Amino acid sequence: MTGGAMKLRIIIVEDETLIRKGIRKKTENLGAEVVFDTDSGYRLFEYIKENGQECFDVLLVDICMPVMNGLDVIAGVKKLKNNVRVVVLSGYSNFDYARQAIRLGVSEYLLKPIEQDALRSVIQRLEADVRKNYMDRMNRAADNLAFHIMGRGDTSLEEDTVKLIRDIFPSGFFVRMYLKGNWRGRYKCFEEEKDGKFCFVYADRPNLLVSLIQEIPADDTAGAGDEANGRMGTHTVFYSGKITDPEAIADCVKRGKRVLKESLILDENIVIFESERQSEGELKKWDEYFGNRYLLLGESLKEGEAEKIRHHIKRILTYHHVPQTILEKAYLKIIWKICEERGNMQNFPDEEWLQEYDTKEEFIDAAMEAALQLLDAGEEKGGFQENGRISLDQVIDYIEKNYDQDITLVGTAERFYINRSHLARIFKAKTGTTFNNYLTEVRIKNACRLLKEGLTSTETAEQVGYDNSRYFCRVFCKVMGCTPAGYKGGEGYEDDKRLEI
C-alpha cells in the first residue's frame, strides 16, 4: 500500500503447491494483490532482499513446513519488518502453535482448509488496519515536511519521511505550488487540505497549496470551472525542475514562493516552469509606459490638476499583463510622489494590505481610494476618524474579543465604517505590526493558554478560529518554534515572550 493504489499486498508461504495456488486464487478474488508466493522460507528471504522490506504488507504463512517451519519464518520476517501483519495458516488446531504465534505478534490464525468467508473477513480487517497505519504515517510525514520547509523548531527531515518520499517517488518528483488569488489573499480555497500524498496548505497562507507530484501534467487545469461556478478564477502555479533528493525540497519551495510572488497577475492564470526563462518583453513596455505616465503625474501634481492626477493614477493601476508586484511598486511610487508634493511624508503607507485583494478590481478600487485620500489634505488630520467616535483601541478590543471568528481587515473596516487602506496604515503605525499578524498573535497567545489548560490541539484550533487543525499546528509552529503537542509538554513555555502584544 505504500507506493501506489491502496491495495493490500500479500506474500504466501505454503509448501503444498495445490493448497498454495488455491489460497492465491481466493485471495486475489477478494481484491488483494499477491506479490509473491513460494514453498520455502529461504526463497521468501531472497525475494525480500531483492525487492526491499516495503514490497508487501501481509504475510500468509503455513506453520508446519520442512527445513524452515512457519514460526522461524515469522521470527525472521519480524526482524526485517516489525510492523508486518502475519496470518498463520495451519491444519493443526493446536493451542501451543497459536500461543507461540501470538508471542511473535501474529495478527490472525486461520485453520485449513480455509473458508472463503473467513479469509474475506481477515483480509478486510487487515486492509483497514494497514490503510489506517499508512495514512497515519503519511500525515506524520507530511507534517514533518511542512515544518521542515517552514524552518522553525526541529526542522530536520525524519528518516521515515525521507523513506516514504523515496518509496512513493522512486525516480524523482516535482514540487507544485498553487497560489489562489493574491499573495496574502483572503480566498480560503484550501481550508480543508486536498487528498494526496505530501500535499498541504502552507502555514499563514491559506490560499497556497504545496504538493509533490510524480510528473507535470501536459495541460494544467487548476482553477478551471471556477468562473463557471461564480468564483474568482485567478491562480498562479509554479512547477519545479525534477528533484531526487528530499533534502532539496525546502530550498525549492523558497524559490517557488519568490517566483509566485513576482509572477502573479490578478485576474490572469499563470503557469510557471522553473526550467523556462520568463519573457521580459512586457516588462520593457511597462517601464517605458510608466516612466512617461509618472512624469505626467508629477506635472499634474505641481499644477494641482485634480482630474488629470486621477486620470494618470487610474491609467497606471489598470495597466495589463505585468506582475502584481510591479503594480504595487508603482502604487508606492505614486504615494511617495503625492506625500512629497504635499509635504506629508509621515503618512506614507505600509504596502502589505495591497496583497490581500484577490481581484484586479478590488486592488484598483482600494489603491485609488488610498491615493485620493492623500490628495485631499483636509480629509485626515491625524485622528483615527474625524468625528472621534471610533478609536484604534475599539478595533483592537474587537479583535481580542472575536479572534475565534472569521475576522479580516476588509470585514473589520466595513464593520467600523473605516477606509480599509487607512485602517491598515494607521494600525501598522500605532501597533508596529500588520492587522493580520496581530490577529495571528492574539490567536496563538490564546492557543497557548488553552493548551496549558489541557485542551487538545484540535479543540484549541476550533476555539481560536482555525477550521483546520493541521493548518493551525503549522501556524503555531511557525510562531512558537514548536508544535502544539510539544508546547503542551512544556518545551515551548519559555518562548511565551514572543507573544507580548
Automatic annotation (TrEMBL):
Residue numbers of 4-aspartylphosphate PTMs: D62
Start and end residues of each Response regulatory domain: 9-127
Keyword Transport: no
Pfam families on file: HTH_18, Response_reg
GO biological process, one term: phosphorelay signal transduction system
Key words, A-Z: DNA-binding, Phosphoprotein, Transcription, Transcription regulation
Listed PROSITE patterns: HTH_ARAC_FAMILY_2, RESPONSE_REGULATORY
InterPro entries noted in UniProt: CheY-like_superfamily (IPR011006), Homeodomain-like_sf (IPR009057), HTH_AraC (IPR018060), Sig_transdc_resp-reg_receiver (IPR001789)
Described function: May play the central regulatory role in sporulation. It may be an element of the effector pathway responsible for the activation of sporulation genes in response to nutritional stress. Spo0A may act in concert with spo0H (a sigma factor) to control the expression of some genes that are critical to the sporulation process.
Name listed for the protein in its UniProt record: Stage 0 sporulation protein A homolog
Annotated source species: Murimonas intestini
